[in-house]
Write a structure and sequence with these properties.
Family: Belongs to the DNA photolyase family. Belongs to the DNA photolyase class-1 family.
Order of helices and strands: EHEHHEHEHEHHHHHHHHHHHHHHHEEH
Pfam family, one: FAD_binding_7
Strand order of the largest sheet: 3-2-1-4-5
Distance between the termini: 55 Å
GO molecular function: deoxyribodipyrimidine photo-lyase activity
Largest sheet: 5 strands, parallel
Organism: Shewanella xiamenensis
Radius of gyration: 24 Å
Cofactor: (6R)-5,10-methylene-5,6,7,8-tetrahydrofolate; FAD
Shape: globular
Number of strands: 7
Bound molecules: flavin-adenine dinucleotide
Length: 512
């Protein structure tokens, strides 16, 4: 008997994925409404753990720990609304359609509610569920404006950010932007749920991804621990909302001048919460509109710069849906298929470990390795250094970021890496090569950020902190890796020569 023929239709199922919140959750609200309208007896809720899929997607252990903590908080929140929650343990996405078919039959489920996800494997998984007859209803909430609703006059996705953002604001300005509240309880409070743990999380056998063999990158060893604690990041919807509100009340008006300085607490730091859906983009835009109601229409609004960053997030998600090959690691600009990347493994490892001899690059990488997060200006600096100074394929860096970021997000990460490498949609031109020394002088003028993450350089004067460690520098490109002076390595490349080399090698992008 198929699900739709069973006639019992007594229950609905809420399937939480990258939307781990109860507030402003369209899918969850729709599920609760459906239960009330259909006098159904119950709403059940699940989260499906898929460890081998996660390994294939290179999810960072710290992000998984953050997800696990939020799944537990979700279970508690749902219990207080009278909704029973179950953590389901499968292996990969391919197991889901069969599991859900059985689950729906067993529990007489008439509708399954979930939020849509833009990544290709997630879309294929949902399509397979629908083809298996699962009554899946998807809502679009990973963006404020769903992919496909911000198009140019020919009805296509924009390939340049500025007109996209203009159109995005035009469309958004016509809509009421009001977050949904937490739905009313559906029944009496349930007993306190037991702690839930993801099982079989082992990252030692992370398979090759995006055509890069793990043996080439040596990345396997870097994520051999089961889960890395995310405790330094406070969990919960309340915490995410507090961070957002604090930022909007106290910092957003200075964001334009502060956002590029990693030693200043000038950005919102909400990305870990947005990435797993503890916070929705609508909550962010609504909070901004409350303080600056003119922000959509007035270019001079003090909230405009931050709004633009939220629109970049939407731009990259829309691109991922319009160009599904991006999820598979393809260059947006196919001319980049001809770049002869050097892919020197030792230099890559020096970059990963923060041992390039360029203090700003190394401090940034250590921030990532120690906290699971990196300031945006530094993401641009280290990505440029890897792809242009070292001529290492951007996919190696993208993958390392994904394996270490608590805010890992395929669309933003892919977009940021391809932008930095010069092969993305509306990317930084290949000939714009960040000078790590002037970036350092400009954005960490007193060296406060560098000293925080490179305490071994505490006694260095400011001037020296911005320079690569190039005393006794050997001939070009032959600097010994990890040779140290005062416990700090010599520069692995010399800036001017690396710049000249990058201009020649990346010149193939000129033809695009
Ligand atoms: C190479 C590279 C890789 C990146 N990888 C990721 C990633 O995996 N996950 C991720 O969330 N962001 C990524 N970013 C974008 C950006 O660096 C982070 O979103 C930002 O640093 C998060 O800090 P915040 O929350 O304080 O941001 P804020 O400056 O306060 O901005 C608010 C929100 O807007 C979004 N946002 C801001 N800048 C961007 C941007 N350039 N592109 C897309 N969305 C943006 C984020 O959701 C962010 O939380 C990457 C950027 C680069 C250059």
């Amino acid at each position: 008997m198929s699900i739709n023929q069973c006639g019992l239709d007594k229950q609905a199922l809420m399937w939480f994925r990258q939307d781990l919140r109860l507030t402003d959750n369209q899918a969850f609200t729709a599920a609760c409404d459906w239960v009330r309208q259909h006098h159904a007896t119950k709403l059940k809720a699940i989260y499906i753990a898929t460890p081998s899929q996660w390994r294939r997607h290179d999810i960072a252990p710290i992000q998984l720990d953050f997800i696990q903590r939020h799944v537990n908080l979700l279970a508690q929140g749902l219990a207080s609304l009278g909704v029973e929650f179950e953590l389901i343990q499968l292996d990969s996405f391919k197991d889901i359609p069969a599991f859900l078919t059985g689950y729906c039959e067993e529990h007489s489920i008439g509708r399954v509610f979930a939020g849509r996800e833009p990544e290709i494997n997630e879309q294929k998984r949902d399509q397979a569920c629908i083809e298996a007859g699962i009554p899946l209803v998807l809502s679009d909430e990973h963006c404020l404006l769903p992919p496909g609703t911000v198009l140019n006059l020919s009805g296509d996705m924009y390939r340049v950010f500025t007109p996209f953002s203009r159109k995005w604001r035009e469309v958004a300005a016509k809509q009421p932007i009001v977050p949904l509240g937490v739905p009313a309880p559906l029944g009496p409070i349930l007993s306190e749920p037991k702690p839930l743990f993801f099982k079989n999380i082992g990252f030692a056998d992370s398979p090759a991804n995006k055509g890069i063999a793990p043996s080439e990158t040596g990345l396997n060893q870097t994520i051999s621990t089961p889960l890395i604690s995310s405790e330094q990041w406070a969990a919960g919807e309340g915490q995410a909302k507090r961070l957002l509100n604090q930022f909007i009340q106290q910092k957003v008006q200075d964001y334009k001048q502060d956002r590029d300085f990693p030693a200043i607490d000038g950005t919102s730091v909400i990305s870990p919460y947005l990435a797993i859906g503890v916070l929705s983009p609508r909550q962010c835009v609504a909070a901004l509109l409350q303080r600056f109601p003119e922000v959509m229409v007035d270019d001079t609004s003090p909230g405009r710069t931050w709004l633009n960053e939220l629109i970049w997030r939407e731009f990259y998600r829309h691109l991922l849906v319009a160009f599904p090959d991006l999820s598979k690691g393809h260059n947006f600009n196919r001319q980049a298929d001809h770049v002869p990347w050097r892919n020197n493994r030792d230099e890559f490892l020096a970059w990963c470990e923060g041992k390039t001899g360029y203090p700003i690059v190394d401090a940034a990488m250590r921030q990532l390795n120690q906290t699971g997060w990196m300031h945006n200006r530094l993401r641009m600096v280290v990505a440029s250094f890897l792809t242009k100074h070292l001529l290492i394929d951007w996919r190696w860096g993208e993958r390392y970021f994904r394996q270490h970021l608590i805010d890992g997000d395929l669309a933003a990460n892919n977009g940021g890496w391809q932008w930095s490498a010069g092969c993305g949609c509306d990317a930084q031109p290949y000939f714009r090569i960040f000078n790590p020394m002037s970036q350092s002088e400009k954005f960490d003028p007193d060296g406060r950020f560098i000293r925080k993450y490179l305490p071994e350089l505490a006694s260095w004067g400011v001037k020296r902190l911005h320079q690569p460690n190039q005393q006794k520098m050997p001939s070009l490109f032959e600097a010994p890796l990890f040779a140290s002076q005062a416990d700090y390595p010599y520069a692995i490349v010399e800036h001017n020569a690396a710049r000249a080399r990058a201009l020649t090698v990346l010149g193939v992008l000129k033809k695009a």
